[in-house]
Prior knowledge:
3 domains, CheY-like_superfamily, HisK_dim/P_dom
Amino acid sequence: MPDRIRILLVDDDEDDFIITRDIISEIPARNYQLDWASSFGAALEKIALKQHDVYLVDYRLGAHDGLELITQALENGATEPFILLTGQTDRETDEKAMKLGASDYLVKGNINPYDLERSIRYSIEHAKSLVEIQKLNTELEQRVAARTRELAEAIKKLEKTNKSLFEAQQEIRKALQKEKDLNELKSRFVTIASHEFRTPLSTVLSSASLISKYQRTEDDDKRQKHVTRIKSAVSNLTSILNDFLSLSRIEEGKIYNVPTNFELQPFMEEIVDEMQGYIRVGQKIHYQHQGNSGAVTLDKHILKNIMLNLLSNASKYSAEGKNIYLTTQTDDQQVILAVKDEGIGIPEADQAHLFSPFFRAGNAVNYEGTGLGLNIVKRYVDILNGTLEFESAASEGTSFIIKMQKHQTA
């Protein structure tokens, strides 16, 4: 017998409780316990006891509504997931519920055992993921606090010595500032990770639920549309995870410059071919190599990551049908790489912060992303002892230019 899942239904209509109980009883191979709270106040009292795994909340609750209940419960410290139930399909209510903290949204009268079981299961899994992120957040805060105490003790010891007290204090202050910056970076990571994971996870949940409704042959196009949405969401999640892992490895000093000999032009042509499957509809990458010999001694793995990141950004921030230009140039001493797009450009006010971690330009907030890509590119270029420059203007596109030694040693 699987573990019992405890559900609290918040609804002021006993008939709806009976209907929900009957639907749950039809779910196969699951062990559920359904409890009922018939008023706003009774619901808050039961939620505070933390005796349930998930809450089903009716939108209409007398003088209150379900959104008020969810908001109040979350402010009181509730961590279990909320699923909002409403009498009709309402996109505005759906979006508002998700922003306030609901895990899902179901339309009463259209609920079947399959949809309800899937919504409960995904909501609980999503809540577990958020709890893990919060746990990591707490652990990091504890580490920062412990490190701060160690540094404070170090200051006291240094004050007892006669060795460059002023200089030692300056170093300690720098260390404390670094720890503060680390703490801020951690908080931004938790916030962005929670937000960026939520959107694709919600897409996977909704599309997976809808696929089951299209069972006829003539529904193949609709099924394929949702399969494509799921694939896109998974690809987005993978990209986010890769950004976080790359940043972590760089911070830990685990990325090394390991140069090998290869021909630059065919290497870049392979990258362009690989990118063709990821760029937007109608876009085209134009590649041109300038110079005589394309033989170089560089780290192929780092160089590929740099180019994939820059070309992906060029595609993401450009409209369909736009051109992307990739140019490589070599002489006896150096390699120059340039990626130019016809996209939205970077506002002048944002350009000073472009390579900061988690930074998003003002005109890029509606595009998916973590704000880590260009920070990672800059760090990779530094590992290759190169320089990274850019030219951009809002609505006119952006060019990135990388210069580095043609033949490098580890």
